[in-house]
Amino acid sequence: MSFGDAQRQVDDWISQFEEGYWKPLSMLARVTEEVGELARLLNHEYGEKPKKPGEAPQEVGEEIADVVFVLLALANSLEIDMDEAFRKVMEKYRSRDAGRWTPKRAD
């Protein structure tokens, strides 16, 4: 699935409600909330903080997808084509960081 496909699915979901897209700063707050939930889960699974007894199980993939959903909603509200934006950012990483890391050796 492309970002464009995902953005259309997010838009289809949000467009069925009168409230529509939230304002960008409200969505940023929502992104922060979702990232916090992801951080909490990762801390439970890989960090030092155990879950509380009876706390519902969660999946890391679903928490990441929650973050992506809100980010795509933010991009939609700002009319950003994420396929194009991601292509540009990958070009940036490929050129800027090309010699920054140690390449893997062929086995």
Explained architecture:
By secondary structure, the protein is an all-alpha fold. It has one domain: Helix Hairpins (Orthogonal Bundle), CATH 1.10.287. The protein has 4 helices and no strands. Helix 1 (3-15) packs across helix 3 (60-77).
Q: What's the total count of β strands?
A: 0
CATH topology name: Helix Hairpins
Spatial extent as radius of gyration: 18 Å
Which structural class do the helices and strands define?
mainly alpha
**Domains, number:** 1
> What's the mean pLDDT score?
94
Shape: flat
Please outline the major beta sheet: none
Low-confidence parts: none
Strand content: under 5%
Number of helices: 4
CATH class identity: Mainly Alpha
Give the N-to-C terminal Cα separation.
31 Å
Query: Helix and strand string, N-terminal first?
Result: HHHH
Q: What is the share of helical residues?
A: 55-70%
Briefly say what this structure is.
The chain has one domain (3-96): Helix Hairpins (Orthogonal Bundle), CATH 1.10.287. Helices cover 64% and strands 0% of the residues.
Question: What attributes does this structure have?
Answer:
107 residues, 64% helix
Indicate the topology.
Layout: H1 3-15, H2 24-46, H3 60-77, H4 82-96
Helix pairs in contact: 1-3, 2-3
